[in-house]
Amino acid sequence: MNRPSGRGRRLRLFSLTSVLCAGAVFLCAPALASTPLPGRDSAMGQTSTEPVTDTPMGSQIRKHEGGEEQAVPAIAPLATVAGMDVSSHQGNVDWNSWYNQGMRFAYVKATESTGYKNPYFAQQYNGSYNVGMIRGAYHFALPDRSSGAAQANYFVDNGGGWSKDGKTLPGALDMEYNPYGSTCYGKTKSQMTAWIKDFSDTYHSRTGRWPVIYTSTSWWNQCVDGDFSSTNPLWVARYASTVGQLPYNWGIWTIWQYTSSPIDKNTFNGGYDRLQALANG
After folding, report:
1. 17-59, pLDDT tens digit by residue?
2. I want to staple 128 with a disulfide (CB 3.0 to 4.6 A). Which of 119, 132, 133, 139 is the partner?
3. What are 158-169's pLDDT values in tens digits?
4. Cβ atoms of residues 174 and 212 within 8 Å
5. Taking the complete model, does pTM exceed 0.90, yes or no?
């Protein structure tokens, strides 16, 4: 995975309601499009027709689930790696500053549905790489707009690919609450599972890697009935002192997004050598 996610004015809006932090992003750029009107997607499967803008990763999870932002997460593993994720709401990011604060990996939003490309993608994706971070791209899914295959191809064609250079993480699929309509995009659990599989299989056929799946346990349990634990690494969002219960059948998390203040921060479950192994495939 715009509305404030840990990235922008939106988190500041959230802070007036359920999110406990005020300014939510570092180097936040003005939104590039107006906030969309509520979608018309319904439980009957009607496709939302609201314009796609730029939804940051985690923005809808914070909106629906809230939670307490953590300065430092309580982590059981002995070895972890600090990371972050950004979207257009950060604008041109000062990557040297974040590297000096200990960040060693970054995910950058590339696309949303098949109609949005992050205009800051090059600066963010290449800039994180140039300062020495291991970086990857993510796609904000809108499963009611087009097929999983169509969105996977759009993602790969617009920055979401993978190369075995030791510095590129597999692309991530951002699955969370619908910013334009009903929670599960008008799909049944089995239909949502099929959509995710279509995206995942297409991404794998294009790149040779399974995409990382970003989600929250609450959203996943409401909207999906499939098991992706044997193929896709889990990136779980939970703004609390512990990671808590994981989505169906995943026994371990790979990345945990634990706060959006002052930017979306993540921790990798393992040492730096394991992060390199994920990059290398």
Report:
1. 333 333 333 333 333 333 333 333 333 344 556 776 677 666 6
2. 133
3. 999 999 999 999
4. no
5. no
85, 112, 144, 264: the catalytic one is 85
Contact indicator for 201, 151 with CB cutoff of 8 Å: no
Structure tokens at 213: 């799946």
Residues 6+ apart with CB under 8 A from 153: 202, 206
Catalytic residue among 112, 144, 176, 264: 176
CB atoms within 10 A of CB 122: 11
Both tokens assigned to 247: 């989505």
- Helix, strand, coil distribution of the chain in percent, nearest 5: 30, 15, 55
Instruction: Say whether 54 is catalytic.
Output: no
The answer to whether 174 is a known catalytic residue is yes
What's the CA gap between 202 and 44, in Å, rounded? 27
Cα pseudo-dihedral 61, 63, 65, 68, rounded to 10? 100
Q: Is 41 labeled as catalytic in the residue annotation?
A: no
The terminus-to-terminus CA distance of the chain in angstroms comes to 21
Residue with tokens 């899914």: 141
* Residue tagged active-site, from 54, 65, 174, 264: 174
Helix H or strand E segment including 86 = strand 80-86
Q: Which amino acid is present at 241?
A: S
Q: Quick one: which of 152, 228, 143 has its CA closest to 177?
A: 143
What count of other Cβ atoms lies within 10 Å of the Cβ of residue 20? 12
Burial (CB count within 10 angstroms: exposed 0-12, middle 13-18, buried 19+), residue 259: buried
Burial class (CB in 10 A: 0-12, 13-18, 19+), 197: middle
